[in-house]
Amino acid sequence: MNKKKSKQKSKSKITAQVTLKGRLEVTRSGMGYVIVENVEGDVLVRPGDFTTALNGDTVRVKVVKENLRTGKKEGKVTEVVTRKQTEFIGHLQLSTNYAFFIPDTDKPMPDLFIPLSDLNGAKNKDRVVARLVKWDKDDKKPVGAIVSVMLPEDENDAAMKELLAQAGFPLFFPEDVMEEAARLPDVLDSEELKKRKDCRDILTFTIDPVDAKDFDDAISIRKLSSGMYEIGVHIADVSYYVIPETELDEEAYKRATSVYLPDRVNPMLPERISNELCSLRPHEDKFTFSAIFQMTNKGEVKQYWLGKTAIHSDHRYSYEDVQEIIETKKGKHEEEILLLNDIAQRLRKTRFSKGAINFSSQEVRFKLDEKGKPISVVVKESKEAHQLIEEFMLLANRTVAENVAKIKINKKSLPFPYRVHDQPDKEKLAPFLVFAKKHGHTFDISSPQAIAHSFNSMLAEARGKPEQHVLEQLGIRTMAKAIYTTENIGHYGLAFEHYCHFTSPIRRYPDVLVHRVLQSIIEDKPINDKKMEEKCKHSSERERAAMECERAGNKYKQVEFLKDHLGEVFEGVVSGVSSFGFWVETVAHKCEGLVSIIGLSDYDEFRQVEGDYSLVGRRSGRIFRMGDKVWIRVVSANLEKRQLDYEWVMDAGGGGEDKSQKSKVKTEKKKGK
Question: Can you give the pTM of this predicted structure?
């Protein structure tokens, strides 16, 4: 007996009480796993060892046991470093002397005790939003407060709020943040004005979506006596209002980004700042941070200036307004708009010639009724008006990054939030190259630049062809994700050696950091922020969460839209293939759903061919390949799971390649029939 025990001990040694920091993920069964960066294997945490941690929280975990043979680790949470989520949606359970909030979640978490003084008008069984206010280690129950009551008819509102809360984005600003924002002055300070370059008498305008309220960038233009043009890119000076270590700054950092859902914006900053003080509204004086370029009419930058300014926007354009001027060559300030567009197109052409990759982008927008229900879906493509703004913003971002990259402290680079994009991973690229070759596109993979050139050649050749969308989609999937980091490896997709985000500080926290570092350099007091990399990681993580939230919001609206079209037939494109079926995206509204392999079993037995991104029928030879046009019928729309199920329709326009029919035709030709 003793021998057996000692043998087991040698296999599973108890490690020293190492404490690690990571993210807690709780399964439906109640078990937890702490995922630690750069450490192989997660740390298992049993339900009784969470202390006050909840799913998604960043925690410190003490490893109490490790199996050296398998590498499996067990631990106990010792501290919650940051909470992912502090607001939850659920139901109120109210008694005479106490109240509890029961969260709507499939992840185990305790109910919140709600003091009767914090009910905020909520009644028993109401669906509510509650905020976790206090949960000390010694407390048996976490304490919460009701933030708002959700009305039964506001199903759309509840769904969007739930997406935001689950992604860890607060639904409301704390009172101290709102008070701080309210105290900010409406009138521009006259002493501050004297310190800035005054650009208020130069023609300046904004170009934004028609429904935008936060205008964080403007463009100015004037002709110089030299014959060159002075073009200014003016960005809302958020850093003037949002000071480090204030409540406003801490809340903005926590959120790190605005989230754009189909029916709302969940802003990074209170509307007092985003839609009023910092929004570059027409006919108002505003403080800005600017990149001002002296350029030829061919887009050659001869010199630039970076610094704080004051501007006065003369006009507010929508993208549609500017597109009409570009197409008709008529409209308000058409001469300046057409010149800017010509320069932007030249900048764009130069960028692609240097190796930037020209993926086209499509945006889905929903027309909603007063309750937020989608009544139509609009697919918008990037046009020259969008590209005009894009190119000047890229120029400003690149110029700021190049400027900062030159600065050294003790021969070391200044900590700075670069926006970087890594080169393609050859392993990820390999299956795509095989697929592209089947469509007649060969790739030169001798260097990253050659790969970029091959991508652009392929995209140009595929434009307008049936395979265009799928090649773009698969091509994007092979790419690395852009992130924020102090380690400047360049931006592969844009072909820039130096790049950062400077142009959207109302909606992105890294831009605020960029403004602060740049101003410190201008003042000759460079900030050496030792926590910059940590801030970059946090911003990248919040950006990913926002993108996933936005995708989920769009998917919810698409499912909701097609719920009213059950049984109807639509044309679609095969957008993905797996062993259990294939996904189809409708052509008209970009709504993706699954055609299950079970539903295809009446026609044939299908198997997946991974390298070909296809399903092939064993008997008929019928092929469903990514990029194929097919017809589908909408059979179910599950709002809770945000899932659409389709059924393949054979007789509504064909779909899928039938090899058996093709080979039959060839045989008959040979026989002279």
Answer: 0.88
